[in-house]
Amino acid sequence: MERSGNWGIGPESVRMVELGHPWIIADSYTKRWPTGQAGQVVELTDNAGRFLASALLDPQERIVARVLARERMRLDLAWLTTRVQAAVDLRSQHAGLGDTNAFRLVNGEGDGLPGLTVDRYGDYLMVQIYCNGWRAHLKLITQVLQNLLQPSGIYEKARPQNTRELEASSETKRYGRLLAGTPAPQQLEVRENGLIFLVSLETGLNTGLFLDQRSNRCDLMKRADGKRVLNLFAYTGAFSVAAAAAGASLVTSVDASPGYTEWSKANFGANRLNPKRHEFIVGDCLEALADLARRKNQYDIILMDPPSFSTTAKSRFTTRGGTSDLVAASLPLLTAGGLLIASSNHQKVDVADYLKELRRGALQSNSDLRVISLVGQAEDFPYLVTFPEGRYLKYALCVKSA
Question: CB-based contacts of 50: which residues, under 8 Å, 6+ apart?
Fold first, then answer.
C-alpha cells in the first residue's frame, strides 16, 4: 500500500465511491496527485483526509484508479487468492454451466477485480487486462491461477487501443502469448451447452467464441427446431451451430469475413453437422439482406448480433444509429409471427436507447414488433448494482405481428 502523498478525490468522485462505483475518472483533483506508477495501490481520501478506499493506480489513463476494496489492504498472494476463489465459487454455485467448459471465471468489476478478466477454455485460462495497473501484477495473477486451478496453460491476450482500425486485419495476427504451462493447439476444442467449438488462444483479437452469449444460444436451441434461421454478422457461427444442432431446417449465415466463414463451417463439422445442408454468405449484411429480399427468401428467426463497430469495403456499421436500418431491412424477410432476435454489446448504448433503435427500424418497415424477452449476459458475467456499465449486453426477442 502506497501511503505517502495525498491521493485526495473531489466531491463528485467521493460521492461515486460512497455509492459503490469502482472507477475514478481523471479530473482537476487527480491532476494534483503525486507522481505515481501504474500498479501502485493507493489510499483514496476526501478533502478532509478521511480514508475512503484502496485503489489500483493507472495514472496515464482516463480511469486513473480503480477501487479494489473499501478497507486498507495489500495486493498480495493472500488477498488476490481470496478474490479469485470467491469468483470460482460463484460460478460453481450459480452459473449452471452443465456440459460447458468455456466460461468467464473472473469478470472484472463484477468480481471485485476491476480491469481484469479471466476466461476458461477447457484446460486453459485466458487473462485479459483492461487496466495497465494490473500489468505490474501479472506474475502474481499467474501464480494465483496456477495454485487454485492447475490449468494446462495460461495465456494473455492483449487488448490494443485502436481495435476499430485493427478489426478487419486482425484475424491472423497473434495477440495471445503463453504465460505459463504448455501451449494449446492452434484450434482448441471446447464445449458449450454440449456443443463443440473451435477457439484460438493466440491469433485474432478474440478467441472465436463470445462466452457472454452462452445462455442466449441455449435459449435459441429451444426455439429453432424445424425453423428457417438467418444469422447476420455470424462471426464463427456459434449461433448458427446452435440452431442447426437443435434441428433448424435451414441456417443462413452472413459475415463479411471469408476467414470467419470458413471457421464457421469448421464448427459445423466439429459437431457432425453437414455445412452443405445450410447456406453461408460472405459479404456486407445490408447488401446480403437486399439480395435475399430480391430472391423472396423468408425466415422464421432472424438473429443480428453485430459488433459495436465494423467496416467492410462498401459500408460502415455502428450500433448507435445502424441498428434501425438493419432491423428495417430484415423485417420484410421475417414471416408473420416470426422471431427477430436483436443483440448489442455496446456499453454506451443503454436499454432505452436500444429499444428506440428497434422501434425506428420497425416503423421504417411498417411492421409491429412485440418484445417478449429482454435479457443480458450469462450468469458468469456478474455486474455490481452500483456499476451500471457492467450490464452491457442487450438481447431482445421480438415477435413480428401477423
Answer: none
How far is CA 354 from each of CA 78, 289, 347, 401, rounded to the nearest angstrom? Answer: 42, 21, 11, 20
Provide the percentage of residues in the chain whose pLDDT is more than 70: 92
**In degrees, to the nearest 5, what angle opens at C-alpha 222 toward C-alphas 220 and 228?**
65
pLDDT at 224: 98
Same domain? For 235 and 269 the reply is yes
Write out the residue range of the structural domain in which residue 43 sits.
11-69
Within this chain, do residues 56 and 99 fall inside the same structural domain, yes or no? no
Contact 84, 144 (CB under 8 A): yes
Collect all residues with Cβ–Cβ distance below 8 Å to 89 and sequence separation of at least 6: none
- Residue 126, phi then psi, degrees to nearest 5: -125, 120
Question: How close are the terminal C-alpha atoms of the chain, in Å?
Answer: 63
Residues of the chain by 3-state class (helix, strand, coil), percent to 5: 35, 30, 35
Judge if pTM exceeds 0.85.
yes
Q: Are 60 and 91 part of one and the same domain?
A: no
Q: Output the average pLDDT for the chain.
A: 93
Both 228 and 357 in one domain: the answer is yes
Q: Same structural domain for residues 162 and 245?
A: no
Q: Is residue 362 part of a domain?
A: yes
